[in-house]
Write a structure and sequence with these properties.
Layout (H helix, E strand, L loop, with lengths): L20 H9 L9 E2 L8 E7 L2 E10 L6 H17 L5 E10 L5 H17 L3 E9 L4 E11 L14 E4 L5 H9 L6 H7 L4 H8 L5 E4 L4 H13 L1 E6 L9 H6 L6 H9 L3 E3 L5 H7 L8 E5 L1 H11 L4 E8 L5 E4 L1
Helix pairs in contact: 2-3
The chain binds cobalt (II) ion (2 copies).
One cobalt (II) ion binds next to strand 8.
């Protein structure tokens, strides 16, 4: 039988499929913004999450994320999409409670594929202690799936991405290179097993361990790339973030795949948007840019913490968590990358 592969039906996959940030901001910046005192500013400024004051010291957190498949196994796709969507809740230090699913599904695929995507998502949500309570499905030529996730948290306990302080160090809790690996997977050049395993892993353990320590700022690393999410944190916090290239963990084989040209399109739109926010030390060139501007999917948490807390975190969490840089007084750029 000639059943279509999931990734055959899509042009770009995972967070690689995000609209270029420049285009997105052009539209967003031109929209009316209704002021509501209950809508709290300063939280993850990633356009896909908000924090809403519901009184008595509690806030409602809501986030949404969905994308086309980056893997052919529908169960794995459901797991990755769920882990990725739920991650925005963990990036705010909160616990997901309920979710709604968003499904775009082609009529050329058997319904068993839709069922498998949902089963993967339900299992992953269950692991997070989150219930998928409903959803919406439409027919579409290109499959897409994701979740809108809701959490309720104590107002004072929510992490923002705008509290990084000079002297902090940055911890990253997953390896990088998902975008490069997914591009190579689509080209049949790798099985991307390590990247897939990482993408389907919840950021729950990272969030749980970090909750016991001092976290000044937090975000998660997805389509905007490690540099994009670092720049958002730096700009939100009024600081400059310094990232040491040699300290960054990558999935094995990632640098080789990038050198072979498996570069996701989002790498270029991310650089277009970020180029005057990021400075590279001399000696760093195209190779490093290819890796650092590439979108990630369901990436790790990026935490800005005092050094003793960061060291305790990395000791306790183990690999691949690593200290990847530090925070300093605001300089002329948002992020500088050193060797
Ligand atoms: Co998101
Ligand atoms: Co995010």
């Amino acid at each position: 039988m000639d059943e279509k592969r999931l990734t055959e039906l899509v042009r770009s996959s995972g967070c690689n499929a995000k609209l270029p940030p420049g285009d997105l901001h052009e539209v967003l910046d031109s929209l009316p913004h209704d002021a509501d005192a209950r809508l709290i500013g300063g939280y993850e400024k990633s356009d896909d999450a908000f924090v809403y004051d519901i009184g008595e010291g509690k806030v409602l957190i809501e986030t949404v994320d969905f994308f086309p498949p980056m893997v052919d196994d529908p169960v794995a796709f459901g797991e990755i999409a769920a882990a990725n969507a739920i991650s925005d809740i963990y990036a705010m230090g909160a616990e997901p409670s309920v979710a709604l699913s968003l499904m775009c599904f082609p009529s050329c695929l058997p319904l068993s594929v839709m069922r498998s995507i949902m089963l993967g998502a339900i299992a992953k949500a269950r692991e997070a202690g989150c219930i998928i309570a409903g959803g919406h499905t439409i027919s579409d030529r290109e499959p897409k799936f994701g979740l809108s996730v809701t959490a309720i948290a104590g107002k004072e306990s929510v992490w923002t991405n705008s509290g990084a302080l000079p002297g902090d160090v940055l911890v990253l809790t997953k390896k990088l290179g998902a975008g490069v690996n997914m591009t190579a997977l689509k080209g049949g050049e790798t099985d991307a097993a390590e990247a897939i395993e990482s993408m389907r892993t919840l950021n729950k353990r990272a969030r749980d361990m970090a909750r016991a320590l001092r976290v000044h700022a937090a975000t998660d690393v997805t389509g905007f790339s490690i540099l994009g999410h670092s720049a958002e944190m730096a700009d939100g916090s009024g600081v400059t973030v310094s990232i040491a290239f040699s300290s960054l963990p990558f999935f094995s084989g990632t640098e080789e795949l990038a050198r072979f040209g498996f570069i996701p399109e989002g790498r270029y739109t991310n650089e277009d948007y970020l180029h005057d926010k990021v400075a590279f030390a001399s000696g760093l060139g195209k190779r490093e840019r290819d890796l650092l501007f590439s979108p990630e999917t369901s990436g790790g948490l990026l935490l800005s913490m005092p050094r003793p807390d960061a060291e305790r975190f990395v000791d306790g969490f183990g690999a691949p968590a690593a200290i990847i840089g530090h925070v300093r007084e605001r300089g002329s750029v948002s992020v500088d990358v050193i060797a």
